[in-house]
Amino acid sequence: MQLDIDIEGWPAGEWEALAERAAGAAAEVEPALANARLHTSVLFTSDAEVHTLNREWRDRDKPTNVLSFPMLERRDLLELTPDGPPEMLGDIALAHETCAREAVEKGISLEHHATHLIVHGLLHLAGHDHVDSDELAEKMEALEIAALAKLGIADPYGDREI
């Protein structure tokens, strides 16, 4: 998967490398994300920008930590052959102030929290969800935990084993 990364309003850091590592780990646990034809944009931005996006596209008038905007249905993603033109998987946007506040509340680094949120967002783009049922939520969380473990990051849901 190719990432198009834009960073605005985040502190200096290795955000591009972090996003690449997160995408690699996500692709290891969700093989549909490993297709080289896929392109995803990742925007590291402010709460104000995510608030605007959330209001305009999700009818939710507040910022949130991460937004995902899929452009492929899961069925189409699974049927995508390795040969052919690039395909846009979707967009992810992370809100700095919310991510930073949540990291402090959780007692973890901003880098680890941002990595988790990128993995989470990519799994949403791949068609996974945690809203419709507890079973789907548990499946998605297990994938997140597995991807983060590949990067040496602890279980963000309570250090339980999968």
Salient structural properties:
single chain, 162 residues, alpha/beta, Collagenase (Catalytic Domain), 4-stranded mixed beta sheet, 6 helices, 4 strands, globular, RNA endonuclease activity, cytoplasm, zinc ion binding
Give your account of this protein's structure.
With about 160 residues, the protein is an alpha/beta fold. Helices cover about 50% and strands about 15% of the residues. It is built from 6 helices and 4 strands, in the order βαβαβαβααα. It has helices at about 15-30, 45-60, 75-80, 95-105, 110-125, 135-150, and strands spanning about 1-5, 40-45, 65-70, 85-95. Helix 1 (about 15-30) packs across helix 5 (about 110-125) and helix 5 crosses helix 6 (about 135-150). It is globular and about 40 Å long. It starts with a strand and ends in a 12-residue tail after the last helix. One of its GO terms (biological process) is rRNA processing. It is found in: Cytoplasm. One of its GO terms (cellular component) is cytoplasm.
Overall number of structural domains: 1
Can you count the beta strands? 4
Provide the residue-averaged pLDDT.
Answer: 94
Query: Would you identify the regions where 5 or more consecutive residues have pLDDT less than 50?
Result: none
**Strand count, sense and closure of the main sheet?**
4 strands, mixed
The CATH topology label is Collagenase (Catalytic Domain)
Proportion of beta-strand residues: 15-25%
Measure the end-to-end span: 26 Å
Side-by-side strand order of the widest sheet: 1-2-4-3
Number of helices: 6
The Rg value, from CA coordinates, equals: 15 Å
What structural category characterises the helix and strand content?
A: alpha/beta
CATH class bucket: Alpha Beta
The helix/strand series, from N terminus to C terminus, equals EHEHEHEHHH
Using the 3D structure, state the CATH architecture. 3-Layer(aba) Sandwich
Molecular shape: globular
Helix share, percent? 40-55%
* CATH superfamily heading: Metalloproteases ("zincins"), catalytic domain
Function: Single strand-specific metallo-endoribonuclease involved in late-stage 70S ribosome quality control and in maturation of the 3' terminus of the 16S rRNA.
Family: Belongs to the endoribonuclease YbeY family.
Binding site for Zn(2+): 120, 124, 130
GO molecular function, one term: zinc ion binding
